[in-house]
């Protein structure tokens, strides 16, 4: 089954791509790798803002990380034409705005990681970093970037 068909089967509708907030491109393809810039969490059209351990709950942040993953897929599809060109999700980087005593960044990042496995199966399993940071652009609670291997065709 194609990944595009898998999205339909799962009932996943990709969001409209958002433009960059600064001087960068959303996706850079170099050779057989696509580097997807950090994507922010828009849930129901609203940016999820705040800090874990202070004013954002873990469950809300997991949903936000999944939203980042959906935007990664949307940006990738816009750049390469079809998700069927994906060979493997190589790595995700999860950044979580959190207080110094919050230590569940890895659980937050699972929101994006689980989405990749759901869509791409074994090819969606990847290496990952999940780190806490004091703040993110425009007050976002979560940001996720990706490195994706593309098929040679």
Characterization of the model:
The chain contains three helices and seven strands, in the order αββββαβαββ. The chain has a five-stranded mixed sheet with strand order 1-2-7-5-6. Strands 3-4 form a two-stranded antiparallel sheet. It has one domain (3-17, 27-150): RutC-like (60s Ribosomal Protein L30, Chain: A, 2-Layer Sandwich). The protein has helices at 3-10, 58-80, 105-120, and strands spanning 27-30, 33-39, 42-43, 46-47, 86-97, 127-133, 142-150. The longest helix is centred in the middle third of the chain and has 23 residues, at 58-80. It is an alpha+beta fold and 153 residues long. InterPro entries: Endoribo_LPSP/chorism_mut-like (IPR013813), RutC-like_sf (IPR035959). Pfam families: YjgF_endoribonc. This is RidA family protein.
CATH architecture label name: 2-Layer Sandwich
What does the radius of gyration come to?
A: 15 Å
Query: Quick one: biggest sheet?
Result: 5 strands, mixed
CATH homologous superfamily assignment: RutC-like
Spans of at least 5 consecutive residues with low confidence: none
Report the helical percentage.
25-40%
**How many domain modules?**
1
CATH hierarchy, class: Alpha Beta
How many E-type strands?
7
* Cα-to-Cα separation, first versus last residue: 17 Å
Helix tally equals 3
Instruction: Give the percentage of residues in beta strands.
Output: 25-35%
Order of neighbouring strands in the sheet with most strands:
1-2-7-5-6
- Report the order of strands and helices: HEEEEHEHEE
Mean pLDDT: 96
CATH fold-level name? 60s Ribosomal Protein L30, Chain: A
Overall 3D geometry?
globular
Could you say which structural class the secondary elements and strand pairing correspond to?
alpha+beta
């Amino acid at each position: 089954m194609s990944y595009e068909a898998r999205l339909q089967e799962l009932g996943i509708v990709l969001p409209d791509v958002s433009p960059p907030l600064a001087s960068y491109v959303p996706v850079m393809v170099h050779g057989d790798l696509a580097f997807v810039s950090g994507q922010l969490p828009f849930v129901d059209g609203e940016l999820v803002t705040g800090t874990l351990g202070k004013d954002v709950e873990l469950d809300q942040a997991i949903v936000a990380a999944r939203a980042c993953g959906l935007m990664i897929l949307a940006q990738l599809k816009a750049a390469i034409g079809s998700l069927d060109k994906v060979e493997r999700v190589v790595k995700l980087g999860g950044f979580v705005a959190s207080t110094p005593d919050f230590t569940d960044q890895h659980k937050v990042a699972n929101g994006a990681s689980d989405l990749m496995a759901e869509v791409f199966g074994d090819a969606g399993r990847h290496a990952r970093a999940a780190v806490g940071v004091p703040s993110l652009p425009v007050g976002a609670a979560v940001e996720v970037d990706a490195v994706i291997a593309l098929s040679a065709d």
